[in-house]
Each structure stands twice: as structure tokens, then as C-alpha cells.
Design brief:
4 helices; mainly alpha; 104 residues
Length: 104
């Protein structure tokens, strides 16, 4: 990833964050996404990155045509996606346990 791509990504994230900061309550409904659909989309993304990493490893092991750096990038992206999904899961479980400990 080049520096220009990182700068463009940062600018896009800043532009996306600015309208959300102005109207935080209207943002989820305006985008048409609720928490469940965002969670499902991220799980699907993690699954797709794992499958891409598996394909890259197979291509590298069987054909030797895949460049090693692309295989490593695919594996790292899959690892990071799974780590992020695990952290979200842990937070959800912690929130659920905290709710269950509350006395009414």
C-alpha cells in the first residue's frame, strides 16, 4: 500500500466521520444500516478475507505462481479481520454479562 493510498483512505474516513458527528442519531437510519446488518457485513468480510487467504496459500503451495508477499498480505489481512471479530465478540459477551449482573 502506498502513501497516497493511505492518505486517500484517511481523507475518506475523515469525510465520512464529519456528517456522523453532526447528526449522530440520524446516521444509522439514514444509511439504512442497523447494528445487526453492520455486524453481519463485518462477519462476511472476515469470512471472505479468510477464504482469500486460503486461496492464496493454495496457489502458492500448488503452483508457486503467487508472489510470497501477496500471500503474506492475505494471511495478515485474514488474521487482523479475525482478531477484530474476536474483539467485537468479547465486547458483546462482556456487555451481556454486565447486563445480567445488574440488579433490578
Amino acid at each position: 500500500m502506498s502513501i497516497d493510498a493511505i492518505a486517500a483512505l484517511s481523507a475518506a474516513q475523515a469525510a465520512a466521520a464529519a456528517p456522523q458527528a453532526a447528526a449522530p442519531a440520524a446516521a444509522p437510519n439514514a444509511a439504512g444500516q442497523d447494528f445487526g446488518s453492520m455486524l453481519l457485513a463485518n462477519v462476511m468480510h472476515a469470512d471472505a478475507s479468510v477464504q482469500a487467504a486460503e486461496s492464496a496459500v493454495q496457489a502458492f503451495a500448488l503452483d508457486g505462481q503467487a508472489p510470497p508477499h501477496q500471500v503474506m498480505l492475505a494471511l495478515e489481512e485474514a488474521r487482523m479481520s479475525l482478531h477484530f471479530a474476536l474483539q467485537v465478540r468479547n465486547r458483546l459477551v462482556e456487555g451481556y454479562q454486565e447486563l445480567m449482573r445488574m440488579q433490578l
